[in-house]
């Protein structure tokens, strides 16, 4: 018998995204088998990016309201984040170019793919693909701000890299994908 066998998939909720309950048999290392149930939230995969300018030592981040944080201790519910979006059928590269233009107004051509990661492996199927890309003022072709029709109201923020990095430790940047990208840029000396 295989280590894992999916026995049942029950849709608990299918609205904007899908919450499924999986029942599966799990063969333990001692040879015994257990039946387990787990709720799994499927909202698709996404891409995230930080734009950087080595000359000015600045990076582009966004700020927007996030209800899950508001209901779990993040005072006004606003989050400073790397620009990001759901793939919606695009490749990670296509998605990140489109989201960057929609949210920040910058038209990037050469996003560099770095790594990918499950973000909440115990409950959410989502993989995020991580990117960085250089930017300068000549690439600003639109206002950005996101899609009003979809309820988005996204502020575009330009930070000195070192200031943004410090904000991880003051609790002003508390978004995992953003922290991961800032730490990557620090470790790999991207701004030096
Ligand atoms: N109606 C409705 N709309 C929703 C719902 N959930 C999200 N949306 C809308 O769907 C759009 C998603 O925007 P994107 O820019 O594509 O994604 P994102 O929310 O920025 O997600 C990014 O960050 C997330 C948090 O770190 C990531 O989970 C995600 O992969 C991606 O990287 C937004 O307009 C948002 O309001 C919902 O339950 N109902
Ligand atoms: Mg977004």
Automatic annotation (TrEMBL):
Co-factor(s): Mg(2+)
Q: What GO molecular functions are on record for this protein? A: hydrolase activity, acting on acid anhydrides, in phosphorus-containing anhydrides; metal ion binding
Q: Gene3D superfamilies annotated for this entry?
A: Nucleoside Triphosphate Pyrophosphohydrolase
Q: Which reaction does it catalyse?
A: GDP-alpha-D-mannose + H2O = alpha-D-mannose 1-phosphate + GMP + 2 H(+)
CDD domains, alphabetically? NUDIX_GDPMK
Where would I look for the motif Nudix box in this sequence? 85-106
Tell me which GO cellular component terms the UniProt record holds.
cytosol
Per its UniProt record, what InterPro entries does this chain match?
Answer: NDP_pyrophosphatase (IPR004385), NUDIX_hydrolase-like_dom_sf (IPR015797), NUDIX_hydrolase_dom (IPR000086)
Report any one BP term from Gene Ontology: nucleoside phosphate metabolic process
Residues binding Mg(2+) are: 84, 99, 103, 152
User: Could you confirm whether the keyword Metal-binding appears in this record?
Assistant: yes
Report the transmembrane regions from the record: 114-132
**Which residue windows are coiled coil?**
none
Sequence ranges assigned to domain Nudix hydrolase in this UniProt record: 42-181
SUPFAM superfamilies given in the database record: Nudix
User: How is this protein organized at the quaternary level?
Assistant: Homodimer.
Its family? Belongs to the Nudix hydrolase family. NudK subfamily.
Alphabetical list of PANTHER family matching this protein: NUDIX HYDROLASE DOMAIN-CONTAINING PROTEIN (PTHR11839:SF18), UDP/ADP-SUGAR PYROPHOSPHATASE (PTHR11839)
This one is known as GDP-mannose pyrophosphatase
The organism encoding this protein is: Zunongwangia pacifica
């Amino acid at each position: 018998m295989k280590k894992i066998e999916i026995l049942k998939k029950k849709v608990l909720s299918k609205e904007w995204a899908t919450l499924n309950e999986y029942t599966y048999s799990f063969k333990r290392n001692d040879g015994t088998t257990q039946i387990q149930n787990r709720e799994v939230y499927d909202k698709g995969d996404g891409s995230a990016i930080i734009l950087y300018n080595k000359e000015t030592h600045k990076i582009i981040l966004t700020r927007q309201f996030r209800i899950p944080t508001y209901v779990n201790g993040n005072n006004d519910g606003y989050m400073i984040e790397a620009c990001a979006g759901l793939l919606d059928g695009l490749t990670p590269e296509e998605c990140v170019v489109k989201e960057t233009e929609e949210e920040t107004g910058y038209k990037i051509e050469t996003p560099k793919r770095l790594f990918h990661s499950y973000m909440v492996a115990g409950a959410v199927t989502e993989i995020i693909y991580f990117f960085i890309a250089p930017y300068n003022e000549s690439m600003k072709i639109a206002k950005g701000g996101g899609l009003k029709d979809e309820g988005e109201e996204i502020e575009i923020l330009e930070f000195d890299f070192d200031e943004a990095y410090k904000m991880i430790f003051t609790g002003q940047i508390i978004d995992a994908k953003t922290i991961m990208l800032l730490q990557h840029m620090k470790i790999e000396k991207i701004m030096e």
